[in-house]
Each structure stands twice: as structure tokens, then as C-alpha cells.
Amino acid sequence: MNPAMLTLDISGPLATLTLNRGAQRNALLPQTLEEIIGACQHIQSTNSVSVLLLRGAGPSFSVGFDLKNMAALLAGGIPDRGALESAAQLGQDAVAALQNLNVITLGAAHGHAIGGGFLLLAACDIRVAATDTVFSIPEVDLGLPLTWGGVPLLMRELGPSLARELIVSCRNFGTDLLLPNGFLCRRYAPENFDESVAEFAAELAQKPAWALKASKQQFSTAFSNSAGETDTALFANAVLHPDFLPNAMRYLASIRSK
């Protein structure tokens, strides 16, 4: 994997995927999106991983698609329709790859999470941010509709009314909006951000892997009509799993000691 785009580190049950164009505030290139897809495929096939932390190196999580790349694409004239559709599909595939992972995903934003960068964050199961992070969805101001599957994703994760307003207003917003809304579950002071995120990720990764992956399966089916049937099968599978009894005994011992 090209270190100019991403780094992927796996340590036991915790995988850390870092957007690694810090000098460019992690502006997303087609290669970045391809590598996100490839990293997700690798994580999916690594049975030991139960939690993925998605973060950005440098001063920002991600400022979205690299507009310099877009300008270069248009410099030779309007590209053909197929090339444009392929570019949009690549972004949608990267967002979907994160959503469809069989592990719990933790997105950690700082600095800026703009446009496509905000969608990568939204694709994660659990999201945290530094208190001074700036968010925006500027596509309409650029003369574009929000693509990459972003509209249904944000209407679900932000709520329909707020998602519509943020998409068409293109205004900046912050953690004061997203934490009470429930989009973010925690926010951390910038000076303690990295260590706080690492501590939270490690805490999640210490949970029983089978239970985490079963929970992820439930998250994925929560908006379908099959959740009840899935829950009964997951419950039986969990109790029959060889890790269930020792984990249950440890938990019971821990609460008895309090």
C-alpha cells in the first residue's frame, strides 16, 4: 500500500487506517479511494480484527475530494460521461466498503471533515471528534449534487430534516450541532485528542470479538424487517460460541467485585 495515501496497521483485534496526505489535509484522490477499498477487503479477510479506527494524519481528518485533481481532469476539456460516472462510483464504493465491513468502525475527526471526508466519517459505526473540528458539505456551492451515496447515508445518520438543510445550505457546522444530534458520541479537547481516541479504540478492541461482530451484523440489519429472525440466530450462536462462557464469567466476576 502506497504510504503517500494510506497506512494500515493491525495490532491484534485493532486495525488503524490512517489517511496519510497530511500536507494536503488528506484531500482524496482516486488512488486514495481505491486504497480504502483495498484496505477494507484486507480487513474483512483478517479474522483477528474486530475494530477498525479510521483517522487522518496531519492537521485535518479530510477536506474531501482533491479539487486540484478535478481541475486537472477538466483541463483537457469536459471528460466523457463514462469517466465521470466511474469517478463518482469509486467514491460510492469507498463509502460502501466502510459501511459493509464486518467489524466495528470508529471514525475520529479533527481539523476538518469536508464533503467526501465527512461521508467517510458518516460511514463509520461510531464517531468522535476534536471539539474544534469544522464540518461542511459544500457540493451544492460547487455546482454539484451530493453523490457517493451521501444523501441516503446522511438522512439516516443525521436525520432527514437536518441532512437536507446541511446539504443545500453548505454552511460550516461543528461538534455543538453533531454531539446533541447523536451523529457524534464523544468529543475530545484537541490537545488530548490522539491519546483519547487511542484509549477509546483500545477499550472497544478489548471486547469479545464474536460479540462485536454479531453486534455489527445487527447494526447492518437494523433498518430491515429481518432483524427479529437475525437476533434469534445470533443469540443461539453467541451462547454456543466457545468464548461465551469465559467472557460471561469474567463479566460476572467484575460486577461482583464492585
Keyword list:
258 residues; alpha/beta; 2 domains; two-stranded parallel sheet; globular
How would you describe this structure to a colleague?
The protein has 258 residues and is of the alpha/beta class. It has two domains: 6-205, 2-enoyl-CoA Hydratase, Chain A, domain 1; 209-256, no CATH class. The protein has helices at 30-44, 67-75, 81-99, 116-122, 150-158, 160-169, 175-181, 193-205, 209-221, 227-240, 244-256; strands spanning 6-11, 14-19, 51-56, 104-109, 112-114, 126-130, 134-136, 186-188. A six-stranded mixed β-sheet has the order 1-2-3-4-6-8, sandwiched between helices. It has a two-stranded parallel ribbon with strand order 5-7. The longest helix has 19 residues, at 81-99. It is globular. The N and C termini lie far apart (46 Å).
SSE layout and pairings?
Elements: E1 6-11, E2 14-19, H1 30-44, E3 51-56, H2 67-75, H3 81-99, E4 104-109, E5 112-114, H4 116-122, E6 126-130, E7 134-136, H5 150-158, H6 160-169, H7 175-181, E8 186-188, H8 193-205, H9 209-221, H10 227-240, H11 244-256
Parallel strand pairs: 2-3, 3-4, 4-6, 5-7, 6-8
Antiparallel strand pairs: 1-2
Helix and strand succession? EEHEHHEEHEEHHHEHHHH
What is the β-strand count?
A: 8
Number of domains: 2
What is the CATH class designation of the largest domain? Alpha Beta
Question: In whole angstroms, how far apart are the ends?
Answer: 46 Å
Instruction: Estimate the strand proportion.
Output: 5-15%
